[in-house]
Design goal:
By secondary structure, this protein is mainly alpha-helical. About 65% of the residues lie in helices and about 0% in strands. It has a single domain, classed as Monooxygenase. The longest helix is centred in the last third of the chain and has 24 residues.
Length: about 110
């Protein structure tokens, strides 16, 4: 019986991966994901503007937005442990923007 336990954790299989410098598609995908990591959290800005501009958080769920903040914190921890820079950037942005909504709910809700 093997003492190695399989788990749901991140594995890097360096021997099987394509070298980034040798593959234009991989390089493009890496750069594209940085754009996505920055742009997608910005989609929260209309919600932030609505709450803070109107000074009202009526019908906005603190449970949902609080869960979004918690999720972003979890992803930030994960990405920090695995040193995944693109995920760190994405998680920090999501956390900050979602926290802005949560604070607005507390103030105006």
């Amino acid at each position: 019986m093997s003492s190695h336990k399989a788990g749901l954790h991140h594995h890097h299989k360096r021997k099987r991966t394509i070298k980034h410098k040798d593959n234009k598609m991989v390089n493009f995908l890496d750069k594209f994901m940085y754009v996505i990591a920055i742009v997608m959290p910005l989609t929260t800005i209309p919600q932030i503007v609505q709450i803070w501009g109107s000074k009202s958080a009526e019908n906005i769920s603190i449970i949902t937005w609080g869960a979004y903040v918690f999720s972003a914190v979890c992803w930030l921890v994960y990405s920090s442990v695995h040193k995944e820079k693109v995920l760190m950037i994405n998680s920090i942005l999501w956390m900050a923007l979602n926290a802005s909504v949560v604070v607005g709910i507390f103030i105006y809700g």
